[in-house]
UniProtKB/TrEMBL annotation:
Pfam families: FMN_red
Name of the protein in question: FMN reductase
Residue span, NADPH-dependent FMN reductase-like domain: 1-152
SUPFAM superfamilies in the record: Flavoproteins (SSF52218)
């Protein structure tokens, strides 16, 4: 199984990348416990910003961006994490998914997450990120994860689970969706497709 994380963090080190790593590892551990062999990769959009802008203008992805798009659309599951800018996902995050074919993520399990300075921005998960991936017809896991600055190292309280517990729950939900998803059909080669088309043309 291929598990891909997309991180739109702009700094180095980045709390967005850290959250992406922890969510990916949580899902990987759960899938491994279920007996699946899992490969993981984190795509950092920071290094692809220029390529994304060029693709939006020209309509042709440079090689690095094309490889990133192929990895995302070919994954068995996605973890997507953005910092909050102006009460929504970042422009770079949205631009990356704008250059992906609108049908390419249909049925794909996706875990959405975001980072921000305060908990006031946590609704970005529900009013921006979940609708975006619903529009792309992906299957978004029930638990979305928001990490404010004060969440790192917090164990939560009697009313709210701490960040580690939310990460475990969301990772488990993503793993369950990935494990339940039917295997993807291998694309048919050109010769096989031609043979089927000719067979359809046979006359009685």
């Amino acid at each position: 199984m291929k598990l891909i994380a997309v991180s739109a963090g702009l700094s180095t080190p980045s709390s967005t990348r850290l959250l992406a790593d922890r969510l990916t590892e949580s899902a990987r551990q759960e899938l491994t416990a279920r007996g699946h062999l899992v490969s993981t990769e984190v795509i950092e959009l920071r290094g692809l910003a220029g390529d994304v802008a060029n693709h939006l203008v020209t309509g042709f992805p440079p090689p690095r961006l094309a490889a990133a798009i192929d990895a995302v659309t070919g994954a068995d599951g996605l973890v997507v994490v953005t910092p909050v800018f102006a009460a929504s996902y970042s422009g770079l995050f949205k631009s990356f998914f704008d250059v992906i074919d609108p049908d390419a993520l249909t049925g794909q399990p996706v875990l959405v997450a975001a980072t921000g300075g305060t908990a006031r921005h946590s609704l970005v998960l529900e009013h921006a990120m979940r609708p975006l991936f619903a529009h792309l017809r992906a299957v978004v896991v029930p638990t979305a994860v928001y990490a404010a600055s004060e969440d790192w190292g917090s164990g939560g309280d009697e009313y709210t689970d701490g960040l580690p517990a939310r990460i475990r729950r969301a990772g488990g939900e993503l793993a369950a969706l990935m494990a339940a998803r039917p295997p993807r059909a291998e694309p048919e080669d050109d010769v096989g497709a031609l043979e089927r088309q000719l067979a359809d043309l046979r006359f009685d």
